[in-house]
Specification:
The protein is of the alpha/beta class. It has one domain: FAD/NAD(P)-binding domain, CATH 3.50.50. Helix content is 22%, strand content 29%. The protein is built from 5 helices and 12 strands. The strands form 4 sheets. It has a 4-stranded parallel sheet, with helices on one face. The chain has a 3-stranded mixed sheet with strand order 5-4-12, with no helix packed on it. The chain starts with a strand and ends with a strand. The structure holds flavin-adenine dinucleotide (FAD). Flavin-adenine dinucleotide binds next to helix 1, strand 2 and helix 5.
């Protein structure tokens, strides 16, 4: 079976892992010119750890972990109200034992699959037509190919979904919540600890 996946972040390479393992010929298109780094921490708890183990990725994921030791909740004066440690609750606590940066997780998944999967960077789906047996696809670079199945793993604002099902406004509902992550100098002298005010 020939399967085309759009997006090489987290979902795309994870899906490529399982599809390739089941014998599919998988092509992954990533619009960015290379694997996108960056992003904050992703925690793996409970069943997620079992999924990582079944993928055979326990060792590389653990090797890429942030090694955060724990967190203190503090009041405005800096007095510690509560302390959490990565080994609380069998590693499934507030600070998870497996905490990995999004970009590192993406890289682990990509490295695991790159030998058996046809990754194309700087490429995306420009046009697709479906019939009863498959999908004819034209890549932005001009190449045409036919696949049995096309899967969108190109994120919340998926262009592939827009191409097939219509504009984002029909599917994305903003909940009015925004987060900003950025790097700052280590003014608090923190070493693998989190401070939460
Ligand atoms: C750079 C980056 C940083 C992030 N940081 C965080 C974070 O800190 N914390 C967090 O919880 N979540 C973060 N996210 C979102 C997080 O990855 C997702 O919430 C979740 O992991 C789902 O991932 P995904 O693979 O479904 O989609 P996404 O991670 O959104 O990845 C979609 C991928 O598809 C690619 N793409 C987009 N359009 C096309 C197209 N038309 N054709 C081919 N490829 C396309 C994008 O370049 C991207 O690589 C980040 C995402 C990105 C891209």
């Amino acid at each position: 079976m020939r399967i085309l996946v759009a997006g090489a972040s987290i979902a795309g390479p994870a899906l490529a892992h399982w599809l390739h393992r089941r014998g599919a010929a998988v092509t992954v298109l990533e619009r960015a010119p290379e694997l996108r780094p960056g992003g904050q921490a992703v925690d793996a708890r409970g069943i997620t750890k079992e999924v990582i183990r079944r993928m055979g990725l326990d060792a590389p994921v653990r090797a890429a972990c942030t090694q955060t030791i724990g967190a203190h909740s503090v009041d405005a004066a800096g007095a510690v109200l509560e302390t959490y440690r990565a080994d609380d609750d069998g590693g499934d606590g507030f600070i998870a034992e497996i905490e990995i940066l999004r970009g590192d997780l993406s890289r682990v998944l990509y490295e695991d699959t790159r030998a058996g999967v046809d990754y194309r960077f700087g490429e995306w789906i420009a046009e697709l037509t479906q019939d009863a047996d498959g999908v004819d696809v034209r890549f932005a670079g001009g190449e045409r190919q036919r696949f049995d199945l096309v899967i969108g793993a190109d994120g919340v604002h998926s262009s592939l979904r827009a191409l097939v099902f219509g504009p984002h406004e029909r599917f994305v509902r903003h909940l009015g919540h925004a987060l900003a992550f950025y790097s700052v100098p280590n003014e608090f002298g923190l070493d693998r600890w989190l401070l939460e005010y």
